[in-house]
């Protein structure tokens, strides 16, 4: 395997790590791992008004939660501005850039003229070949890149195929603003070159930038990295992914109770495939991952699929591991910190014992949290409406008859189950007619893990006391 592959993930810290960014990071990470290379992290923090330390922390936290590591320290793009300016000066010296003294009023007139003539709005090259000696006094110029006007710029893209841009369609973009601040397209090229990036994997919305950036690489005589522009993620309805679809920050998925391994599996399948495989481990994904298996078409985000996949992962996770994930999850969800504060060694043992039953129906850690509430409930329990109805509809009578049987039974799953079933047979009652009021009395709700598991985990004293409480209040 080649160790020369270097990818990079380069988010802008203007908010949380959104789900599309998470997928881009995953693809860069998986490809670097597959090729025995490195994934670097660059924070594109040149927008000083919108870039915040909190957003940087959120991005790092989101990547860490997803289980995606990077090589070396995260690089700040803003900290490298002097290097970007240096390259702008080199382009000037080489004749690949020029100073433009157009005023905002002139640029506005240019824009209006193009709109009136129904032409695309672009800079008309006013200062491209003018003598700077004719520049107006007191005007701070911008520096523009001298884009080739003839021929074409070609991107050989792993996902999009051969993409051809006519050079006459690309105007002379600003690479250095009048205040001396470099612009995005210049900064990206300089950083990717200096960091030794060999493969750029990013969203298809950067495809036009790829053409402009390729021209800058060539003007500097630098090697152009291989490009892969990944299709966008759409909502289930085919429209561009928005917040109503699930275009949330990665931290929102953590709070919704998804497991990182399930998220990696799900995100990998949004735009990349390996035959018909839907469920695979992270190790398999890394082994299989290749850029040419990334599709051209947008993929659709589907919460139902994600939930089902997460449920599969939860059932397949060893109980002790799932308990650890559950405890790690609690600080990030409403009501979780309070629950966490009550988890001592005894409660951990109860949760671990209950885990097989708890995880059987749960699709998320939020579901698991709801199912586990009965373990944390304090006597006397407050019964919800459905549980109260069950008690009123014959539940009190059924439990009054059952309680002495339970009191006389040896306390383990098999003995308790045998005793309840024998009682049901002896009284001609259906098992459900006993299980329902038992569930109501023991958990305060009408849903729970298997009732015999509940009795076992709560233990003899707590179970009998909860039943007695329910009979008193009933």
TrEMBL record:
This is Glutamate--tRNA ligase. Keywords: Ligase. It is an enzyme of class 6 (ligase). The lineage of its organism: Bacteria, Pseudomonadati, Pseudomonadota, Alphaproteobacteria, Hyphomicrobiales. Its EC number is 6.1.1.17.
């Amino acid at each position: 395997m080649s160790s020369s592959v270097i990818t990079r993930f380069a988010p802008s810290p203007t908010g949380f790590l959104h789900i599309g960014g998470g997928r881009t990071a995953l693809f860069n990470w998986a490809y670097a791992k597959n090729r025995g290379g490195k994934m670097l992290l660059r924070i594109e923090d040149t927008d000083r008004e919108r870039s915040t330390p909190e957003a940087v922390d959120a991005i790092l936290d989101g990547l860490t939660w997803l289980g995606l590591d990077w090589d070396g320290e995260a690089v700040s793009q803003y900290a490298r501005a002097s290097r970007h300016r240096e390259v702008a000066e080199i382009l000037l010296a080489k004749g690949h850039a020029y100073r433009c003294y157009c005023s905002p009023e002139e640029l506005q007139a240019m824009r209006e003229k193009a709109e009136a003539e129904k032409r695309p709005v672009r800079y008309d090259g006013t200062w491209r070949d003018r003598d700077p000696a004719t520049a107006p006094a007191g005007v701070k110029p911008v520096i523009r890149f001298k884009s080739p006007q003839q021929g074409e710029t070609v991107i050989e893209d792993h996902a999009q195929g051969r993409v051809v841009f006519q050079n006459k369609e690309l105007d002379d973009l600003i690479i250095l603003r009048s205040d001396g601040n470099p612009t995005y397209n210049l900064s990206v090229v300089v950083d990717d070159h200096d960091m030794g990036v060999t493969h750029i994997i990013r969203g298809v919305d950067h495809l036009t930038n790829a053409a402009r950036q390729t021209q800058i690489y060539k003007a500097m005589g630098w090697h152009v990295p291989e490009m892969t522009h990944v299709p966008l993620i759409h909502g289930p309805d085919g429209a561009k992914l928005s917040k109503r679809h699930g275009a949330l920050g990665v931290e929102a998925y953590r709070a919704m109770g998804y497991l990182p391994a399930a998220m990696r599996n799900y995100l990998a399948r949004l735009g990349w495939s390996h035959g018909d495989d839907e469920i695979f481990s992270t190790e398999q994904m890394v082994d299989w991952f290749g850029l040419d298996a990334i599709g051209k078409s947008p993929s659709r985000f589907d919460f139902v699929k994600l939930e089902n996949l997460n449920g599969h992962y939860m059932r397949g996770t060893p109980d002790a591991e799932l308990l650890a994930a559950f405890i790690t999850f609690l600080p990030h969800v409403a009501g979780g910190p309070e629950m966490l504060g009550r988890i001592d060694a005894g409660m951990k043992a109860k949760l671990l014992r209950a885990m097989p039953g708890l995880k059987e129906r749960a699709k998320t850690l939020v579901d698991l949290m709801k199912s586990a509430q009965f373990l944390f409930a304090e006597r006397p329990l407050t019964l919800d409406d459905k549980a109260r109805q069950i008690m009123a509809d014959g539940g009190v009578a059924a439990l009054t008859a059952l309680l002495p049987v339970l009191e006389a039974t040896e306390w383990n799953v098999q003995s308790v189950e045998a005793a309840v079933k024998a009682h049901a047979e002896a009284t001609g009652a259906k098992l459900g007619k006993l299980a329902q009021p038992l569930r109501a009395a023991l958990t305060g709700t009408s849903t729970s893990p298997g009732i015999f598991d509940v009795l076992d985990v709560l233990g003899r004293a707590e179970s009998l006391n909860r039943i007695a409480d329910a009979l008193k209040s009933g």
